[in-house]
Design goal:
Elements (H helix, E strand, L loop, with lengths): L3 H7 L11 H12 L1 E4 L5 H11 E3 L11 E3 L19 E4 L11 E8 L3 E2 L2 E5 H11 L1 H7 L5 E3 L5 E3 L2 E3 L4 E4 L7 E3 L1 H4 L2 H10 L1 E4 L6 E5 L3 E5 L2 E2 L3 E9 L7 E2 L3 H8 L25
Antiparallel strand pairs: 1-14, 2-17, 3-17, 4-15, 5-14, 5-17, 6-16, 7-13, 7-15, 8-9, 8-12, 10-11, 11-18
Helix pairs in contact: 4-5, 4-7, 4-8
Length: 285
């Protein structure tokens, strides 16, 4: 049952994964909103069982034999390129596995042991980011949608772009902000605008044991605050076991944002407030 505490914390993003028909609800919510909050996953096996219900697991270079990846502080080794997620410092908003040609569509992260302090999760809806840019800097979207303007990975990098258009007016986002992400001059000049839009639409929350989130990795960017203590999470990556169209729908929101830009709607919005394209409730910091 959806408790008052869960409603206050995760709003309408919460789905009770133990309820009958939960998998159908989760599939619909991922398609519509790109994010689902869950709880009751208090063991690694419980996380694995749930992950296998909703996705076909895709291995990660750091994953364990069961297909899940243990997310904890590994100390100095986390300073290597691409391993910041296995440290205790701040992890900037990014797309998971952005350096491979086809990143996994779904990402599930569950907390088994919270940090002594810090470690809050930060999620950003790419649709809200897109709408902010459409209202303030539409030329940024044009530049970031050009092929080969972003390079992700080691060596020469994997040629890509930040926004990828799909059929039917749909679009996906792919971004990272560490040394494995490089951008052409056409895009680099707009990165401050992009980072501002990401920061304006971040939603922060702390996970307790057994709580986690499932995101559409082509729509939501995820991040983490720095932390102290033996924080322990597990992560699953995979392909959805349910139909999921490419990208997310821009709808008419971007056009409406451009039309309303002169009204100054951004001037009154705080960092933790939802983006214009999001009418979902989240816990406020």
């Amino acid at each position: 049952m959806l408790t008052r505490a869960r409603t206050a914390r995760f709003g309408s993003h919460y789905v009770d994964q133990e309820e009958e028909g939960a998998d159908r609800v989760i599939a619909g919510q991922v398609a519509a909103r790109g994010v689902v909050m869950v709880d009751g996953l208090t063991s690694r096996q419980a996380v694995l069982d749930f992950a296998q219900r909703i996705m076909t697991l895709v291995p990660h270079p750091d994953s364990d034999p069961d297909g899940l990846t243990t997310i904890q502080n590994i100390g100095l080794a986390s300073r290597q390129p691409g391993l910041a997620g296995l440290g205790s410092g701040e992890l900037l908003a990014h797309t998971e596995r952005s350096s491979v040609p086809s990143p996994p569509r779904l990402m599930l992260l569950v907390c088994l042991r919270p940090a002594a302090s810090g470690g809050e999760v930060l999620l950003t809806d790419g649709r809200a980011v897109l709408e902010d840019l459409a209202a303030t800097t539409p030329s940024a979207i044009e530049a970031m949608s050009l092929r080969g303007t972003a390079f992700y990975g080691d060596g020469g990098g994997h040629p890509s772009r930040i926004f990828t258009p799909h059929g039917g007016g749909r679009i996906s986002i792919r971004f990272r902000q560490d040394e494995l992400g490089q951008f052409s001059p056409l895009v680099s000049r707009f990165l401050p605008d992009l980072r501002k839009a990401i920061a304006a639409n971040e939603h922060a929350f702390a996970l307790q044991p057994g709580q986690g989130y499932l995101i559409d990795n082509a729509r939501h960017l995820h991040a983490r605050a720095a932390f102290l203590g033996p924080r322990l999470c597990v992560r699953a990556l995979g392909a959805p076991s349910f139909p999921l169209r490419e990208g997310f729908s821009r709808g008419g929101a971007a056009a409406k944002s451009r039309a309303g830009a002169a009204s100054g709607r951004h001037g009154a919005r705080g960092k933790s407030a939802p983006g214009a394209g999001s009418d979902e409730s989240w816990e406020v910091r």
